[in-house]
Amino acid sequence: MIRSIARFLPFVALLVLIPFLLPGGRLGSYYLTLLILSLSYAVAALGLTVLLGYSGQISLAQAAFFGIGAYTFSVLAVNHHVGYWSAALAAVVVTTGFGLFLGAISLRLASHYLALVTIGFQIITELVLNNWNAMTGGADGISNIPRPSLFGYAINSDHGFYFISVAVLVLASYVVFRLRHSRLGGALFALREDEIAASANGISLFRTKVLAFAVSAALAAMGGILYASGSLYISPNVFNFYQSVSFFAMALVGGQASIVGTTLGAGLITFLPEVLRFLHAYYIAVYGVLVVVVVLFMPEGLYGLLLRGVGAVTTLVLGRREDGRDEVAYLKSDAVPERPVASDRPLLEIRDLAKHFGGIKAVNGVSLTVNRGDVAVLIGPNGSGKTTVLNVLSGIYTATAGSIVYDGKEITNLGPTRINRLGISRTFQNIRLFPELTALENVAVGHYRRGTVGLAGALLSRPRGYREEREAMEKARETLHFLGFVRLDVKAKNLPYGQQRIVEIARAIVSGPELLLLDEPAAGMNHEETEVLSQILYRIHALGVTMLLIEHDMSFVSSVATRAYVMDFGQKISEGSVKQVLSDPAVMKAYLGDDVEYA
Amino acid sequence: MFSEFIQLTIAGLAVGSIYALIALGFVLIYTSVNVVNFAQGDFAMIGAYFMVSLVVVLHLPWWLALVLAVVATGLVGALFQLLIFQPVRNRPRNFLPVMIATVGASVFLEQAFLLIYGPIPYQLPPIFKADSVAVFGVHVYPQYIVIIVVTAAMVALLNWFLERTKLGKQLQATAQDPDTARLMGIRVAWMAALTFAISTALGGLAGLLIAPVYTVTATMGSSIALKAFAAAIVGGFGSMKGAIVGGLGIGLIETYGATYISGSYRDAFPFIVLILFLIFRPYGLFGEKVSQKV
């Protein structure tokens, strides 16, 4: 943690030194003004680092929030003579309120659509700023915006205000940094990578999206206040759609998810017109072309490219570092762990469950009971409704009819987040890991429901926050170790299929669930991998976790399951021990058809 | 009173037709390649400038100039697609980079045409010189009638093309499932180029139709495009019917609002409608809520 913060020190030192490196005279003070502007842009662009880079939400309304912050501050400070810091605080609060509003709308929208909607918000904000003459001064804007005083000293010089701006940027970077490394940071990344998997791991999509928008809006407001106070004058045309695009360009040029990159991007975009000044009339056109080229052909941004270049040079000089390419340390023990005996106390009771998609009755009246300590397996031909049962059970689909009782509580249609929080976790048929996160980070997200620290806790670094973060990481490491997995720092997308399954199982059990739902865990695995998987399931079972799984591999089923249910055409056709159901004529008929002569 | 209402309705439908044409361009590109082209409005500007060159400078007959200008705009659109979309068409999550790139391209196009044609606005003469024409005893500006009639014809033509021709079917197939379309032997890359050409040609048509009412400047497209964009959202982004209904509706609301409520808030009415939709019906009039498959 301390070391990660220390990485930022050279940049902070650079920011503090820059004013002393500027040329003297008018040019120097002009550059200083531009530097102050780029600092204000950088703070607002950091909002996009959170919103776009971390949580993957596309917003083209950042200039609107920037403007709402600047205007609220200026109206209060200039027209109503409110004190500097109170006006600033009020501006952040008001802007955050708008952020909450947009975040709340965003829940109902898919990502592309959300981008369109934020543009609508941007345009409306521009219009209000332009036309609400009584409040905003219309196109004339607001002038004589004050600068702050600190400990009784009025800071009126550009130099003084520059350092205030650096301090605000450092504060903003700290907020973003802390957020990224807290439990909420994990939730934001999970949201970006896979919403369904995020909610199945106890992360509330609504709260997380609203949080991302609120933080982003608050940072935009802080930037807006710096802008207003720095340039002493504001008018609506600064806060238009193109400024929103500029913020975007800053975040993209710098590399979306990087604090330093975004800050450099803000500086670059602000100073680019100066650099291109020699092109005279052509410079805006060239600027447009540069945006196109960078955005389309440098997906990691200039800063990402720079880092990669530095990395390549380092490798060239120092040689390649060992990247820990060990295989899974396969669990090969002859001693089968002692497995608990299934009790007769029911943990999960499904009654007459039905799920219809229009006219298709995917599940049509299924009842089954899973007792504590069971490893129950749901088998049946393809399309018989097994996965649908699991999806309804875990809250991803709502039931058409019927009830689900878990541990004596009615949980029908509760929603995936709530259900996960009650102690039911799951894996998916098509593996839903968070592809850009490492194996370890993936599993740490699974621990989310055990954490309690919110935004305030994360930012104020209460010891409990640090302890929780450490605990989640330790638990994740422990769980992966328990499953014999060692490639902790490899991104999930770069893992082979079988190992992805193991990581997904680790993510599902890291929070210590009582009931584990596995959707075809052995699908696509070779014989050896399936062997390892049975070992893993034995070990999980030995911990006292009750399981319900869907599986086609009958030898695997026979080795792990204590009880089996068979489905066909949305209905349960048989239940009992694996041996019993496999010799049930109804089951054979379902799999093999009518015309088979049974020997 | 009543004749004023008829006049306003015709003016509103005319402006709305312009929004509808540009909104159709947004929707066609969005449904076929899943990106939003923010330079869409600039093609209205390009169409208008081409028309200026052909009519004012070369003195070509109006209808011939119209066809040439629309085709030329479409060709620019195909080239635009080649540079902006083709290079990244297979990259996952390309929505955002392409969208920002189209904004960069929009900045470039506006500046380029400003440099070519200069900052002084051009006036494009209307096809009919008369100041007014009587429709059912009500005097209306003839260019409005031209706009409405040409737009209606264009929408009918587009519909015929998409529903009744083989090429139109190929275009729709590609929009619905490019991979399967490729397996059926459809040239998917060509279809993307064609989609951009059609969409930008519609934009060009909108620009040259409205040019006699406004003036021709390098930035004329951006404010029209934002309202067309609002129209596309109100209609349900992704629905062609929605783009037309949304465009006409926004045009009418803007015109009525400017006359009956407040002239200075003329530009705000479309966006007030937009925000109401965002709050109460974010998927628009004809949009479909898509659910994610697990």
Give an account of the 3D structure.
- The complex is a heterodimer of chains A (599) and B (294).
- Chain A has 599 residues and is an alpha/beta fold.
- In chain A, strand 11 and strand 12 form a beta hairpin.
- In chain A, helix 5 packs antiparallel against helix 11 and helix 8 runs antiparallel to helix 11.
- The longest helix of chain A has 30 residues.
- About 1% of the residues of chain A have low confidence.
- Chain B has one domain.
- Chain B contains eleven helices and two strands.
- Chain B has a two-stranded antiparallel sheet with strand order 1-2.
- In chain B, helix 1 crosses helix 9, helix 1 packs antiparallel against helix 10 and helix 5 crosses helix 6.
- The longest helix of chain B is centred in the first third of the chain and has 32 residues.
- The termini of chain B are far apart.
- Chains A and B meet through helix 6, helix 12 and helix 14 of A and helix 4, helix 9 and helix 11 of B.
N-to-C terminal Cα separation of chain B, in Å?
58 Å
Low-pLDDT regions of chain A: 323-327
User: Could you describe the largest sheet of chain B, including whether it forms a barrel?
Assistant: 2 strands, antiparallel
Give the CA-based shape of chain B.
globular
What count of structural domains of chain A?
Answer: 3
**Helical region count of chain A?**
25
Structural class of the secondary elements of chain A?
alpha/beta
